[in-house]
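User: For a reading group we're discussing how well predicted structures match intuition. Take Spy/CpxP family protein refolding chaperone. Before you show the prediction, I'll give you the sequence so everyone sees exactly what went in.
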Amino acid sequence: MKTANSTTLRKSLFVALAALSMGTAALGAQAQTASAATAQGAPQAGRYAHAANQEQRAARAAARTARLHDDLKITPAQENAWNAFVASMKPLARTGKGAAQGARPDRTAWAGLSAPQRMAKHIDMQKQRTAAMEQRLASLNSFYAVLTPEQKKTFDDKAGHFKGRGMRHGGWQRGGDTARG
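Assistant: Thanks. Here is the predicted 3D structure of Spy/CpxP family protein refolding chaperone, as structure tokens, for the group to look at:
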């Protein structure tokens, strides 16, 4: 004879197993859909998020540049030097796998290299970065030479600190205050 307690227990167990089965089936279907979309070459959300972050960074950099231009009170006579300086401080373009300065190396091409060959390639890449920084320094010196003493002080206070990730990515960042812009 069945008791009410055992019947309730069996029903509860059956409902729990059914819910678990449906949940597992739903997760499996979702995983299949996601893998099918990836296999078909559908864009992934991360790619869009990266592009959005790049746009936000570019907008913040443009705002910082405009703010520095205003803080320095650049005169029309200094405008050409300013424009050359700003252009030289832009990050290096990443145009392809291992093809251009600033590009990430092609992992498949590097996989077959010996350790000394990889080290030699790293040294070559570092030389390219050093040459790019020397060009930026020359542009900075040219721009700095046309500034008045007051502008030099403002520049030193606002933009003279190459901090954090800014120089690694080829640009300059505002120093002094810690507010993000």
